[in-house]
Amino acid sequence: MSDDERLPQPAPAEIDLVTVLHALGDPVRMRLLTSYADGAEHSCDPRHLGLDHLHKSTVSHHMRVLREAGVTTTRVAGRNRYVSLRRADLDARFPGLLDALLAAAQAPTD
Amino acid sequence: MSDDERLPQPAPAEIDLVTVLHALGDPVRMRLLTSYADGAEHSCDPRHLGLDHLHKSTVSHHMRVLREAGVTTTRVAGRNRYVSLRRADLDARFPGLLDALLAAAQAPTD
DNA sequence: CGGATTGGTGGATGATTGTCAAACCGTCCC
DNA sequence: GGGACGGTTTGACAATCATCCACCAATCCG
Fold first, then answer.
1. Is residue B109 part of a domain?
2. CATH code at A66?
3. A42-56: per-residue pLDDT in tens?
4. Structurally, how many domains does chain B consist of?
5. Who contacts B110 (Cβ-Cβ below 8 Å, separation ≥6)?
6. Contact check, Cβ <8 Å, B95/A103
């Protein structure tokens, strides 16, 4: 499982706050984050993510941005990729930030 | 003081998380945020903000983005503008977020 | 093998953005 | 009135970005 190959991602200490915020300052990527909040691994298929309206290459692009910002990690197994939150790394580097973000994402839109 | 005119800004309930994160996903605006963290009012002069390298119109643009996102408020008094954090509004709408962000901004860059 | 599945790459395109420069505007004050 | 001051607006420009499309690559399975 977790000893499969992983796509390139920044080391925990290299995760940059502004880069993370820039990554999350997009509605699609914010939606991906909330999908990943369950801690589970997720496939890249737009249909599994409520993103039917987007081309698969667009979703691929957004997932790359999240991964390169250090928000997610991607495990490669066969022809599937399993994306999940780097919760431990984020919590260690920016204590309380992820929880506050996920809670804020629930705030009513009005 | 606080009954002076204020530049247009979103109502507390209209503050949008993604818009806030997008606003803060820029190094200059993140630096402004940390400057405003003291809760005090600040002038717009780049030289008072450690932004000597930027044109005053560029700083004006960044401050507008922050204000329109709901991060800051701008009080107009005579020919001066006094910018400050909307801490109460942000704390009410996104509990813990601002504190986590300001703490995260202190994390070593490595 | 050969087709289907899963997902990424590269190019193109239109929109947004960060920056500067110059002109502008209201206010203060001599 | 007429500068000087503090900021904003507008325009220009290059860079970045989100999106789509067509094609590609690796893997799985019958």
1. no
2. 1.10.10.10
3. 999 878 888 889 999
4. 1
5. A13, A14
6. yes
